[in-house]
Model the fold of this input.
Amino acid sequence: MRYLRISVTDRCNLRCRYCMPKGPLRSEAGDRLAPEDIGAVVDAAIPFGIDTVRITGGEPLVRKETAEIIKMISANASVRNIALTTNGTLLGEKAAELEDAGLSSANISLDTLKAARYREISGEELLSSVLSGIKAAKERFSPVKINCVVMRRVNDDEIGDFCRFADDEGVVVRFIEFMPHLDCSMEFFYSKTEIIADIRERFGEMTEVEGPQGLGPARYYKADGLKNPVGVIASVTSPPCFSCNRLRLTSDGRLLPCLYSAAHFDLKRELKDGGNIAYVLKAAIDAKGRLCAPARLNMNMAELGG
Done:
């Protein structure tokens, strides 16, 4: 295990259809792990090989203590990389603070480059704020990656536009297969095969190449007509279960062996009772592959932390 994903909140200032549930969220603010508890979990995870931590949500930047959490984690010399996954709407105003806290890299979720469509997908008119966030991130973090969830009849016509955008802006774009969960069906699903075919048709032959630094599941491809490689995350058609090197911690303290995990380990209770955190981490690692069945997510993406 090298990679720990930590959701610091399941709250978000957007309501994207593939991520946020239709009804109320499970947790309240009082259910979140305190910054010192998150720091304790990271410290306990280091002996198991963890050297990369990703901060996720919900939208992590709606939590006021996120920079404090990053600073606490960065104080551990064994953590080589601290990354952030964000919708980018608040990144422009907070990038400097995050850099000072020790953030290394940023992934920015963006599913359309069209203002009207952005509002349809997210419920808000904040595309310009995201673009400002990308600009601020490029000045401070490396690499900067754009995560685009491809949805049939929603934004599948923008795959080529995102490739050009990535080349022009000097960022890395990764196309992600839509994943069905509690409130979403497969009607929006657009496969890796279709994504690759679209890119090949517009930009020429593609060759698989080594991608930028990171421990994520993306496979990277270089098209003849593009300057930079593009990534594809085939979470549905080719889930990377056998090479998975990560654990997930939800904002309310549940440790998940897998994105598709049907069970969780209650780290919050162990923290509250002064229990053995390392024992729980070991149990979750041992459970990888046994409690997972790639199909439909058992929780909404906002609760899982992506």
